[in-house]
Design a protein that fits this description.
162 residues, 3-stranded antiparallel beta sheet, 10% strand, transcription, HTH_MarR-typ, WH_DNA-bd_sf, MarR family transcriptional regulator, Tscrpt_reg_MarR-type_CS
Length: 162
């Protein structure tokens, strides 16, 4: 009987913990985006493109989980601002490839260095966590994600590309 009561409590506690962290991460991202004249989707797109460049628009959509119309508007704004270069893939003319411009790389680097920005604030928090505990946390998160991915059927509340 005790096991039956404990399991849902553990899953509820884990979900609430993840939601709480996610809520604060989104608030920090939104604040950093606003301070840099970006919408949240633009900020999310820039920070996703930066370490993966070049990246196809399809890959960006899979990483960001943004609706197609939101992603298109986000990319268009980033292209118009000169931070992102949008090109057609010469090997597949139907594919759009995105890359940061030199100006975009400088902009992303500046955002990452901002003392009051999301990256620096998160680093300050993570610096307080024991490195071994941090590595274990990442492994645990991966184990949870893999376990959920294995038990969830495609098309039920998520993207099959996750």
């Amino acid at each position: 009987m005790e096991t039956e009561q404990r399991e849902p409590v553990r899953s509820t506690a884990m979900m609430q913990s993840f939601w709480n962290v996610q809520r604060h991460l989104v608030r920090a991202a939104h604040q950093t985006a606003q301070e840099n004249g970006l919408s949240l989707p633009q900020f999310h797109s820039l920070m996703t493109i930066a370490p993966r460049r070049p990246i196809t628009q399809k890959e960006l959509a899979a990483h960001t989980h943004l609706p197609k119309s939101t992603l298109s508007q986000s990319i268009e704004g980033l292209v118009q601002s000169g931070w992102v270069i949008r090109e057609t893939n010469p090997d597949n003319r139907r594919e759009v490839v995105l890359n940061l411009s030199d100006h975009g790389r400088q902009f992303v680097d500046a955002i990452k260095r901002q003392e009051a920005g999301m990256q620096q604030r998160l680093e300050q928090v993570l610096d307080q966590i024991d490195p071994a505990a941090f590595e274990q946390m990442l492994k645990t998160h991966e184990q949870i994600a893999d376990g959920l991915k294995d038990i969830l059927s495609p098309g039920n509340g998520g993207c099959a590309d996750d």
